[in-house]
Amino acid sequence: MFLAIDTSAGTSVAVVEGELVLSERSTEDTMRHAEVIGDMISGALDDAGVPASGIDAVVAGMGPGPFTGLRVGIAAARAFAWGIGVPVIPVVSHDAVALEEWAAGTRGDLLVVTDARRREVYWSSYGLDDRMPARTDGPGLCKPDELPYPEFLRVDATQVSAGDLGRAARMHLDLGIPEEFTEALYLRSPDVTMPGARKRVSQ
């Protein structure tokens, strides 16, 4: 049984058992991750009728995503996992979007795109065959008019489903696919930086 958390685009929390999503709570609000994440975790567990002790692992969406929002979800996933003594499974957030398309019957080459703000977008490319969706390039960051693979089917996602994130984690484990990205995928410097040393004032 997995608890899955993603804050790369809005906030989504789900309880997943195998291929079955037992509960999911989501919002597309990209400004209140920290305010809603605790209640959404509690609510998703209550909706599924699953106690914290019933969770075997916590799936964390690693992005790509904006710095502030993304780190809230990853921190929440790590704190919850530490609290109940279970591992964290990192998954690229775009993998959830690709899995949703694959499960709906889409096949061929796919480009997943999400908003990166600052007039930029995040992207990942996938090959969707009958076996599974496989990431072939990315994640990357660019201007909208610089997106690669213009011939691919493009999906612009405004929300990443934690339910699909948990299902992607289960598929990766079942197929023995290691997750190469174990740290947050900000893909650029944070919006807020530490100030440098104060300049000496000349007398």
TrEMBL record:
Q: Which domain of life is it from?
A: Bacteria
Enumerate the UniProt keywords alphabetically.
Acyltransferase, Transferase
Q: What is its EC number?
A: 2.3.1.234
Q: Which residues form the Gcp-like domain?
A: 32-147
Q: Name one GO molecular function term.
A: tRNA N(6)-L-threonylcarbamoyladenine synthase activity
| Presence of the UniProt keyword Cell division in the record | no
Which top EC class is given? transferase
The name of this protein is tRNA (Adenosine(37)-N6)-threonylcarbamoyltransferase complex dimerization subunit type 1 TsaB
